[in-house]
Specification:
Layout lengths: L4 H10 L7 E2 L21 H6 L7 E8 L2 E5 L2 H9 L1 H4 L8 H5 L3 E2 L2 E8 L2 E5 L2 H8 L2 H11 L7
Antiparallel strand pairs: 1-4, 2-3, 5-6
Length: 153
C-alpha cells in the first residue's frame, strides 16, 4: 500500500519523540533550533562536512553563537566554526528543512541530514528526509522563500 506524502509526514510527526513540535510559527521562534539552549542536541556541525556523519560534540569545546551553545568534537572543529560559522551552520537554523519548505517549523534530528552544494540541511527524521529528497531543489526553493518569516522574523 502506497502512502501519500502528506500521510507519511503526518505519521512521522505523530510518532512521539521528545521535544518534537510541528506547528505554524505564531510568535517569534528562536533563530536556531536549540532545545535546552544547545544547537543540534550537542552534535558537531563541522563533522557533517569533515566526517560525513553526526558526531557528538563536547562541553569542553563549545561556543555561543546566535543565542545557542554549539559544541564540537575537537578544538580544531571549534576553530573552523569560529572562523566561518555561516559555512557550517545548518540551513533554516537547524529546524526541519522539509517543514520549513511547507511553511511550518518542526524539530530536527542530527541523524537525518544531507549536505548539498556545501550546505547542511536537517530534517525531523529519516522518513521526513525521504520526502525532502523527492524534490530537493524544489524544497530548497520553497524553504528559502519562507525563511526566516516562518519563525516570525
Amino acid at each position: 500500500m502506497r502512502m501519500s506524502r502528506r500521510a507519511i509526514l503526518a505519521a512521522a510527526i505523530a510518532i512521539p519523540v521528545a521535544g518534537t513540535i510541528l506547528r505554524p510559527a505564531l510568535a517569534q521562534e528562536p533563530v536556531v533550533y536549540a532545545p535546552g539552549g544547545v544547537a543540534l542536541g550537542g552534535y558537531d556541525v563541522v563533522a557533517y562536512f569533515t566526517e560525513g556523519h553526526a558526531v557528538m560534540g563536547s562541553e569542553t569545546h563549545e561556543i555561543m553563537w546566535h543565542g545557542a551553545v554549539w559544541r564540537f568534537a575537537t578544538p580544531e572543529a571549534l576553530m573552523e566554526f569560529e572562523m566561518n560559522p555561516a559555512a557550517y551552520a545548518p540551513q533554516y537554523g537547524g529546524y526541519c528543512a522539509y517543514a520549513v519548505s511547507r511553511g511550518t517549523v518542526a524539530s530536527s534530528s542530527p541523524e537525518a541530514f544531507v549536505v548539498r552544494d556545501g550546505k547542511l540541511y536537517l530534517n525531523h527524521n529519516r522518513e521526513v528526509m525521504a520526502l525532502w529528497e523527492t524534490d530537493v531543489a524544489g524544497n530548497i526553493a520553497r524553504a528559502d522563500s519562507r525563511w526566516p518569516s516562518v519563525i516570525g522574523r
